[in-house]
Specification:
about 500 residues, mainly alpha, two-stranded antiparallel ribbon, 21 helices, about 75% helix, globular
């Protein structure tokens, strides 16, 4: 397939799918079929583009030019390809899971639900394909607006309060900080087009560029760096498929993807290492790792514990990006992928437990592994990946992040990363251990603990992804190496 045609297909498919979902909403089977077909078509079109992009092609498409010299433009490069493949593949799995989960809950408003899901993936893919900061910012904002109805899907007062916090923090940081940084970048350089190695070098003094970097890092609220993190645990009021979207498929991964784009294609790692703010931003990310882990230890609600775990793990990706070393960048890109598969598995398992056993609090899950062995075994595999232990893919991404701290001679951050992994073991491992080896507080009727087949298939696929990323890590490593200056093609 022609690369430009595949690029257009990839960008238009989720939007067309959303329109078709709305049009066929009265016919549930047709609507669901279109939802799944849209997800598969999107992944297929991106897969068709992958060989050319990883071999050095940079397909480009200009959508429109609202201001002279400021086009809305698509350009696909290796980092965008990695994020697009990650989001689109997980959308297929999440769609399968949503069929079982939402059906078991006899949920209302499913047409709106699936349409907003498709719009969210349209925005995420737009971010992945963005050829400049303006396009990336517009798609970033669309992603916030498209996911807000999903966060408030339940329609309860608590859901609406969480939705207001969600919008307030994400729009507030993006408009007051991120947009300011983008306008300032335009004023300094006269361009917003991404350039390998960055384009800000020499455009201003290191002091001014240090302030600009801080505006970007804190303005990208979806990366959930403290203190702009509260929207994420608040959004756990949403259905579990939405939690998976927020934590693994699009939203927070869109945030750390944005930070990686800024590091690699706006500042450049050489410039980053010269800025005064890089060091204290690294410490801010390290503090996020530790504080979020300590808060996670105190949560009895499983989804809240997983939410704070995500905040902590995002800190690892931000640290890797800001280390401005080869190993740090590779580890950051790899952890974006391995964490996505690990965390989506954990959320799928949490939702399955809620559907089958009607249990949301960890204190109620003693002995649950005896009646739900498949779910709890998948939870264990994903837990090991998040911690950074075999046979989970997170083993390798954390290995490179640790190597990045050594390469940068950041021994304090090395200690932080190791402490964060220890804390993640403390707040995650007891769940499957108690599930398998503790006696249940009340007798469990195994027949009552049935997980919908679609949910079990999705859990199995996501868990398999965690294992594949461990045993086939070399492929992901070669793709991540393409992000480095002078990275070889054809990895």
């Amino acid at each position: 397939m022609n690369t430009h045609l595949a690029l257009q297909l990839a960008f238009c498919t989720p939007l067309a799918g959303a329109l078709l979902i709305v049009a066929t909403g009265r016919h549930a089977a047709v609507r669901n079929g279109i939802t799944l077909a849209t997800a598969i078509t999107l992944f297929g079109s991106l897969l068709a583009l992958a060989p050319a992009v990883f071999d050095g092609a940079r397909p480009t498409l200009t959508l429109l030019e609202p201001l002279p010299g400021l086009p809305l433009q698509l350009t696909l490069e290796p980092l965008g390809m990695l994020f697009a493949l990650l989001s689109s593949s997980l959308w297929i799995i999440t769609t399968l899971y949503a069929f079982g989960y939402m059906g078991a809950h006899e949920a209302h408003g499913l047409t709106r639900f699936y349409a907003c899901f498709a719009l969210s993936l349209w925005a995420a893919v737009g971010m992945a394909l963005a050829g400049n900061l303006l396009t990336l910012f517009v798609c970033y904002e669309i992603l916030t607006l498209a996911t807000w109805p999903l966060v408030t899907h339940a329609g309860t007062p608590e859901a609406h309060r969480s939705g207001r916090l969600y919008l307030g923090l994400l729009l507030g940081t993006s408009i007051s900080l991120l947009l300011l940084a983008i306008i300032w970048t335009w004023q300094l350089t006269g361009t917003l087009t991404f350039v390998a190695g960055g384009f800000l070098q020499g455009s201003a003094s290191p002091a001014l560029l240090g302030v600009l970097l801080a505006l970007y890092v804190f303005g990208i609220g979806k990366a959930a760096l403290m203190p702009f993190h509260r929207w994420l645990p608040a959004a756990m009021v949403a259905p579990t498929p939405v939690s998976a979207l927020l934590h693994a498929v699009a939203v927070v991964k869109g945030g750390v993807f944005f930070i990686l784009k800024v590091v690699l294609y706006v500042f450049g790692i050489d410039t980053l290492g010269q800025l005064w703010s890089t060091q204290w931003l690294l410490y801010a990310a390290g503090l996020t790792i530790l504080l979020a882990s300590l808060v996670a230890l105190r949560q009895d609600n499983l989804k809240l514990r997983l939410a704070y775990s995500t905040i902590s793990q995002l800190g690892y990706i931000v640290v890797g990006a800001l280390l401005a070393t080869s190993a740090g960048i590779v580890g950051s890109a790899m952890h974006m992928v391995t964490h996505a598969f690990g965390k989506i598995t954990l959320f799928f398992c949490a939702g399955a437990i809620l559907v089958a056993a009607n249990k949301a609090d960890i204190s109620q899950m003693r002995g649950l592994g005896r009646s739900m062995p498949f779910t709890m075994a998948a939870f264990l595999v994903a837990t090991l990946s998040i911690i950074g232990l075999p046979p989970g893919g997170g083993t390798w991404s954390k290995w490179f992040l640790v190597a990045g701290t050594l390469e940068a001679d950041q021994l304090l951050l090395l200690a932080v990363l190791l402490a964060g992994s220890l804390l993640s073991a403390l707040y995650l491992l007891p769940i499957p251990v108690r599930g398998f080896f503790s006696r249940p507080d009340t007798p469990l009727n195994i027949a009552d603990h049935k997980v919908p087949l679609a949910c079990e298939v999705a859990i199995g696929l996501a868990c398999l992804g965690c294992l594949v990323l461990f045993f086939q890590a070399d492929t992901l490593y070669r793709l991540a190496r393409l992000l480095l200056p002078g990275g070889t093609h054809g990895g």
